[in-house]
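WP5 quarterly update. Target: Beta-lactamase. Source organism: Thalassococcus halodurans. Length: 297 aa.
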Amino acid sequence: MTQAKLSSDFHACIVKNGQVVLTQGRPDALFPWWSFSKTVLAAIALRAGVDLNLPLPNATYTLHQLLTHTARLPCYCDLPEYHSAVAAGETAWGFDDMEARVMSLPPKEQPAWRYSNYGYALARRRIENLSGKTLAEHMQALANHLGLNTVFLAETMNEFSKVHWPEAKRYDPKWVYHGCLVGTPAEAALMMDAIATGRLLSPDQFRTMNTCVDLGGALEGRPWTRCRYGLGVMSGEMGNVGRAIGHSGSGPFSSNAVYHFPDLPEPTTVAVFGHGSFEGHSENHIQTLINEKARHP
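Structure tokens (predicted):
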């Protein structure tokens, strides 16, 4: 394993064939996985064998639609008071309170694809209900299966205070209603590598995960040249490094990007965590790391 030149801005890990081959920054530090937790949640649903196509009670949408952001639901991130409360370090609203606030948003026709954290919160509850296990229990089973020792579902401010960034000490992880996993960069990369290479999902399950809606081309300030979304995965192309399958995430003080790159000479998985909330910050560093460190077997 190689230790890359230390960067004060980034903490990263490269995995090939299920093995850590390079780390950067603090390999032992804990970081919030933010929306990469969505990818893990979708993998849990597939492994649990829950019915993705059964409509939710008193609803017209299915779990599959929630996990692919095609349920046409609004998002609590549209609420100005959500951002104000997070910035003030307040305790997260209860689920029912959050839901009432979201549903009180002025009605408008939602597009066929609409990114919705509220939808993922519903998905989490549905998976827990159908499987009879909590997300924390599912996560522990995954960690045990893969031999991961640091990743956990953060459910209290005290637990979240273990995160590397100092701002974490005044953030309530329950603001991430679908669940916020915390772990090292290596375990994020190992998790995505296991999802993409058959150690967690069957080939059919991974095909289901990577069946995508096309969303367009380049995004300003980010490395994407083609954008798609599947079942809990951002899946597209990042210029000269080819296809990328995984997820980016951000919170009020940090961002991350965790992706598998199947088109490289040796398929490679990279996880990057950066200070600052812009996802492109971490995504661009992934592309830099691959071009400088991981292009050759």
